[in-house]
Amino acid sequence: MMELIIEFAYTGSVNVTESNALRLFMAADYLCIEDLVQICCKSFEKLLCPHNCISIWQFTQNYHIPELQLKAFHYVLSHFEHVVFSEEFLQLSAQDVSDIISRDNLNVRQEAAVFEAIIRWITHEPQEREGYADLLLPKVRLSMMPTEYIQSHVLSNKLVTDNLRCQAMVSEVIECKDRILGRPRLPPAILLAIGGWNSSGLCIEAFDVRANRWMNITNLSERPRAYHGAAYLGGYVYCVGGIDQVLTETNSVCRFNLSTRTWQEVAPMHYRRCYVSVTVLNGCIYAMGGHDGRTHLSSAEFYQPETNQWLEIAPMHEQRSDASCTALNGKIYICGGWNGNEYLQTAECYNPETNQWTLISPMSSRRRGLGVIAYDNHVYAVGGRNRKDCLQTAEVYNPHTNTWCSVSSMMTPRCNFGIEVVEDRIFVVGGFCGYNIISNVEYYDSETNEWSQACDMDVFRSDLSCCVLSGLPNMADYTIPREN
User: Fold this and answer.
1) Residue pLDDT, tens place only, 425-468
2) N or C: less crowded end of the chain, CB within 10 Å?
3) 89 closest CA partner among 47, 126, 38, 55
4) Residue 53 CA to chain centroid, in angstroms?
5) Which domain holds residue 115?
6) CATH number of the domain enclosing 241
7) Are residues 160 and 217 located together in one domain of the fold?
8) 155: alpha, beta or left, given left = phi > 0 and alpha = psi -120 to 50?
9) CB-CB contact of 369 with 415 (8 Å)
10) Is 420 inside a domain boundary?
11) Domain boundary among 125, 150, 176
């Protein structure tokens, strides 16, 4: 360690590895070498994984490094379903387990994972830990579990049946389940629905997937937009192009500060673009196609937040407005749209390394006003409309085989809607169903190949755009208040 420290004193660099990081940190801290302490802390952050995050978290409790302590604990909460299978989890104290599972921001898809975690922890040393069952079970949100699971897994578990207080607690939850509201955990990500027709101002609603509820977070100071694109990048939500309240195509771009809830204009695009297709790739926002008020565009450009500049890229093979796009594995895929003469069946792919567009296999249907989204190394094309009808159908593209195949159709036909992935499910939001603007929301589960209903938005709207927020320090500001 002294050799490494002396080398650092002369060169300003040091080789921090998984095997030496802890000892090097302790030596640097003892000798008050603050720069080296910070380097070690950065290394700990990069080394965090489900098998060491608990030991790093506990280690930080003995030193004054609050930032690393917070990040390590947040990692434990965020990756809980993997952390519980580590050896470190089994060595936690009862109080530490209680502190972890009581948090609103514990990331679990199903509350059953929390119950199974405490059973695993207790049965690791049953004689010493059985007495902690009535300390830990109240921290499980039993009222969020299906009654069938409680009856078949919780009430029948020996740790519950042998503990009268636990039995009474679980029985009370079952008896009162229809009359009490559970307190859901905070979601790891929030779905935003932004703008569109039939809203006052630039209406924004946030969907809390854990509570299955929408919350209105509209800031009426920003002008209304429709046929625009939305993107989340660097802690900001960007609204790109579209059409404003006087039905004028715009090249303006504004961004929403999620901390202050204020809007700010940034550099405009080179072209006016409504019906624009927008996605994020490699830290940049790409805007493709659209309509400038006179013609349907094949041009494309991207925005660099660091320089506040838009730069043009190679044009697409087709003029496309009212298309949809997504980013997958370092490339952009854009599908369908309208070229002014026909509704398009074609799709193409952009490689930023070569600045080239390549036509890929066409979809099985012509689609305008569709939704395109990447999920599980595939590209999904959903809904839209052809010359006659709004579509319910959906299809999926495999980039490795360059082929499309059909998946289950949506429950509701729709075009010009929002689409995003939240917690491994594809959500479609609002739109036009062929005869009316809708607030309807549904989601697709690729494992079951089924669509299911989610909570409707409070606002009926079409021609909106969606994006997903994650990793916000103030995530609770965009969720349904848990205290209520």
Assistant:
1) 999 999 999 999 999 999 999 999 999 999 999 999 999 999 99
2) C
3) 55
4) 22
5) 2-176
6) 2.120.10.80
7) no
8) alpha
9) yes
10) yes
11) 176
